[in-house]
Amino acid sequence: MEEANHRAETERQWRERAEQEKRNADQRAWAGEENARRERERAEGERREREQAERRKAEAEEAMKQARIAREAAEVAAEKARVEQERSNKAAQEAMEEMKKAKDDLANGIQPVTWPTPEEYARTLQAYQYQEGKFHFAIAGLSGSGKSSLVNAFRGVLNQTASAAATGFTETTVVVGRYPDPNPEKPCVWYDVPGAGTLTIKDWDYFNKQGLYIFDAIIVLFDNRFTATDIAILRNCERWKIPAFIVRSKSDYQVENIKRTLVDSIEEDESLDEDEQASRLETVLDVAIEGYKSQTRQSVEKNLKDSGLGSQEVYLVSYKALLNTVRRKNTKNVLYLDEAKLLTRLVEAAKERHCPPASQQLGETSNMFARLTGSGKWSTSGFV
Ligand SMILES: Nc1nc2c(ncn2[C@@H]2O[C@H](COP(=O)(O)OP(=O)(O)OP(=O)(O)O)[C@@H](O)[C@H]2O)c(=O)[nH]1
Ligand SMILES: [Mg+2]
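== IRG-type G domain-containing protein ==
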């Protein structure tokens, strides 16, 4: 029993030891797992921290990038504002200088050069009912110079008839009159333009104010005196490349006056015998015509030269002769001078120029300005 008890005791002790060992092994395994878990947690924590640090770094970099972009944008805006300011200062300075120059020029008798804006140009085309495919002729001149009569003659219409432009001794033409040619085969429209003297417009402003820049050809008509307005019109025609025709009206009346004076002087010249007087009287009309032609040409030439304009032909006409020429009548006792030549040249010149149609876009109109003036540019005050 003792031995059995001893064996049992030994077994129990073995068992206890084995159990203790198992507990120890379990304890070690648990500690190992615990360590591994802690290690995993620590690694996970480190990874998260690293990620957060990276995110924070990326955020900081992004913030810096945005700040740089904003700074650059602010710099660009500041530069733009500076350039704009400089530009507007320069424009203001130029405008001041221009104004001063214009004032000085005006004080020194030099007329300002003005251009209409593209909108004004388009409005004028519309107001004058500019029609593509037609020739638009303006007849401008002092009051009483014979504009309306000339319009009537060009249209083959007798003065004082129903469709005629009003004519007379009082100031009849105060607004621009538009007269399409009654002959359907002639695509011409005639404009009766009142002279500057009739209106409260300055000579130099007359051309633009009257919108003469849209015409295909312009007749500058005078009967006695060639005026500052006539010169201003011719100067503007040169700028706009519009064919201009200097025409002296009432030539029949002017020649008749010269002839009468010549007849008087021949008849009163006691140094001449009857035969000499008779032969002189026979040629008196030719002498009067020659005198009239040379006196007119010389006087116009001088006026053009004094104004710095190139020499130009002068057409001598009278209403009746022009009317007959248009109507293809060859009535006797009418003094024919340059009427036929004027008619031909007018149409030739108008065909060559021809203004752009009213339907064209403003942009195209401004291109036309550029073409006309060579190297112009648009400014807020128009084409300069
Ligand atoms: N002898 C002669 N008289 C003319 C001639 N042309 C015009 N006249 C006369 O001159 C006067 C004035 O002519 P108009 O045609 O009315 O002149 P206008 O330039 O239109 O005049 P306003 O409309 O007042 O500016 C009229 O009495 C005409 O008969 C011409 O060639 N010969
Ligand atoms: Mg008139």
